[in-house]
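#struct-help
A.M.: can someone run this one for me? Single chain, 223 residues.
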Amino acid sequence: MALVYSGIYSRPAGKTGGVVWGAARTRIGKVATARTYTIPNQPNTDAQLQRRALLKTGAYFANLLGEALYRDPWNNVVGLLPGFQSLMSHAINSMEYDATTGLGAWLDTPPPISLGPSFMPEVVATGGSGTLTLTWDTDTPGDHSADEDGMLGACFVKDQPYLGLTSFFTRAIGNHHRDAGTMSFSGMTGPNTFGALVWFRHTEPDGSYTYSPVSFVYDDVTT
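D.P.: on it. Structure tokens below:
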């Protein structure tokens, strides 16, 4: 039986006869939805199982990245989805099924995505002995970039994005802002291919934030 928690003007929830009530997020806020009740079919085809594996891996990655990094930058980036689901959706579309692990692995060239108008320079990854170093141009063109812009993102194992993850928010951990031009990760176990997903955050004059497009970069790390 459906429940109406706050009288006739509130949103119903639950099932009434053959109708299931719910809610959806739209540009005008949350709205009530209604759908026909159906019994789910689980054929467990290879395609279905592989898609579930990508969904599981995308959720792992978004959880490991953390709310501070997905809540605001990724909100409404993919359709009307909130930050967690936007990041997870893009992660799923940036992975392929890996039969060896039964989960997802990053594509060599993930699809591009932008989080906003802030300038994103070309980022280059260089692997070394137990290290991965990122370098980028320190120019600040346009109205949405400045020397003190913080770099945000995560470092991960390319073929196992749910392992070896280091998320970072450079305003909190040191001087790796736009004007630094470089940052390094250490303590990695090679030989393996490590990657980084990175973007910049710019503080606007009114105190709000704008973000840049996202870069995926990889390189091999040796022992």
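A.M.: thanks! The mean pLDDT is 87.
D.P.: also worth noting: The chain is about 15% helix and 35% strand.
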